[in-house]
């Protein structure tokens, strides 16, 4: 079997799930749930993920498996002579910008792991953890070196190819991620008053549902599955034609939801056990969690384990970002893969330097009132990803016949007609409307509802 294909269905599922399970699942979801009502937000998120995220994921799988092409040529193959391949170019631009600032956070994780191993996280006061994050993110040289190291880790894996690089790394990192999660959760649930954290996550208080939390849940459901950048088009292009994409998509969504549950169980029991607030926002990982772990026996060891887990999740997600661009350029020619992995990776590093300096040397330099880091984040999360998801949902029913879509979803196992019709209605009508709502909200159109 070619190294340009996944060697097994489980390898594909682990790699695709790893692409989805990144900072969004382990970092962003807990803090958004924390500020959005806990259980009620989680309930809505699950409903939206299954009813909207899963159908869109299947849509990307159809495009990739049918064509076997990269994220740009896939659209040209289905709609030749048109400009629909701009969706692929849009995905490339999006992940280029996304990885440029995503790797900055990945670099912070590497720094924290190093400090944990060398004793730099021991015996800090609650205020000390906040100061540590400021000193780490504000140190220009340290931030740039860590940013580069995270990018190089990605390059080393992607340069090895699909089977030898992405699949092999995912088969190691994803199971390790689960094992570390179980260890941390076992410790977290053993803390006094831990049940309050479990209740916060799983007991919905629907009186806390607001228009803002609904929009947050809807947006999180779309983007937690890496939709809108054609990443799943790229990964599914590496599948044999007889792979059951329906069961694969269900497995990936289930694994993603399971990881999010584990993330909540690892974080919220400790937060409530020590009387801390769950609505700390982005500081939850770097400020609140070290505080939690510092108060339990062998806490530093557990926090290092959590950081390693977080690193694995960040890497399996960032692999797909770099792979999208590399595959679009090499067109499956592995003789070019090593060279282009380094060229693209180092270009992303260079582009991300201003983001790495946004918390120190360039913190006062803003564009439209935002630092480089915040501007890149805003462009990706609020504009480029929603636009990509919207265009893909329009492309499928517009450029592929209904009978053709049914045939793709029925390969190799026939799908019930009512299930297909439900999927088709969601893709053609419901998903675009929902994405437009998220898109408008991200641009501030519904701010009046949040007051």
Automatic annotation (TrEMBL):
Chain ranges passing through the membrane: 12-33, 39-63, 84-114, 141-159, 171-189, 209-238, 250-276, 296-319, 340-359, 379-398, 418-440
Keyword Transmembrane helix set for record: yes
Topology versus the membrane: Multi-pass membrane protein
Listed GO MF terms: symporter activity
PROSITE patterns found in the cross-reference section: NA_NEUROTRAN_SYMP_1, NA_NEUROTRAN_SYMP_3
Localization terms from the record: Membrane
The UniProt record lists the keyword Transmembrane: yes
Sorted UniProt keywords: Membrane, Symport, Transmembrane, Transmembrane helix, Transport
CC per GO annotation: membrane
Leader peptide range in chain numbering: none
Family note: Belongs to the sodium:neurotransmitter symporter (SNF) (TC 2.A.22) family.
Protein name (record): Transporter
């Amino acid at each position: 079997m070619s190294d340009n294909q996944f060697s097994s269905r489980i390898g594909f599922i682990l790699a695709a799930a790893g692409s989805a399970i990144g900072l969004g699942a382990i970092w962003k979801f807990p803090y958004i749930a924390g500020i959005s009502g806990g259980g009620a937000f989680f309930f809505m998120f699950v409903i939206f993920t299954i009813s909207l995220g899963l159908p869109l994921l299947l849509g990307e799988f159809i495009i990739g498996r049918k064509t076997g092409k990269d994220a740009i040529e896939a659209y040209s193959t289905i709609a030749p002579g048109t400009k629909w391949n701009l969706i692929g170019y849009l995905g490339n631009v999006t992940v280029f910008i996304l990885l440029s600032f995503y790797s900055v956070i990945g670099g912070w994780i590497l720094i924290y792991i190093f400090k944990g191993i060398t004793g730099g996280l021991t015996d800090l006061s609650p205020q000390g953890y906040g100061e540590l994050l400021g000193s780490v993110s504000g140190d220009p040289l340290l931030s740039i070196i860590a940013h580069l190291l995270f990018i190089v880790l990605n390059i080393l894996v992607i340069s090895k190819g699909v089977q030898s690089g992405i699949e092999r790394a995912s088969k190691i990192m994803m199971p390790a991620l689960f094992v570390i999660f179980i260890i941390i959760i076992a410790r977290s649930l053993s803390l006094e008053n831990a049940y309050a954290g479990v209740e916060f996550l799983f007991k919905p208080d629907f009186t806390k549902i607001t228009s803002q939390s609904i929009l947050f849940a809807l947006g999180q459901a779309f983007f937690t599955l890496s939709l809108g950048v054609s990443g799943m088009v790229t990964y599914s292009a590496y599948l044999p034609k007889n792979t059951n994409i329906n069961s694969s998509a269900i497995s990936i969504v289930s694994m993603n939801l399971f990881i999010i549950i584990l993330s909540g169980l690892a974080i919220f029991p400790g937060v409530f056990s020590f009387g801390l607030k769950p609505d700390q926002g982005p500081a939850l990982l770097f400020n609140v969690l070290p505080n939690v772990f510092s108060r339990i026996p062998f806490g530093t060891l557990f926090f290092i384990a959590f950081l390693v887990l977080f690193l694995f999740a960040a890497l399996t997600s960032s692999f797909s970002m770099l792979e999208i661009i590399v595959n679009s350029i090499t067109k499956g020619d592995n003789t070019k893969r090593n060279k282009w992995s380094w060229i693209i990776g180092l270009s992303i590093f260079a582009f991300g330097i201003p983001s790495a300096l946004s918390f120190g040397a360039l913190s006062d330099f803003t564009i439209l009132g935002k630092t480089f880091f915040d501007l890149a984040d805003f462009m990706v999360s609020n504009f480029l990803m929603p636009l990509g998801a919207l265009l893909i949902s329009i492309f499928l029913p517009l450029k592929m016949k209904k009978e053709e879509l049914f045939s793709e979803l029925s390969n190799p196992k026939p799908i019930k007609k009512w299930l297909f019709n439900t999927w088709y209605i969601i893709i053609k009508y419901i998903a675009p409307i929902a994405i437009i709502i998220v898109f408008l909200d991200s641009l501030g159109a519904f701010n009046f509802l949040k007051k």
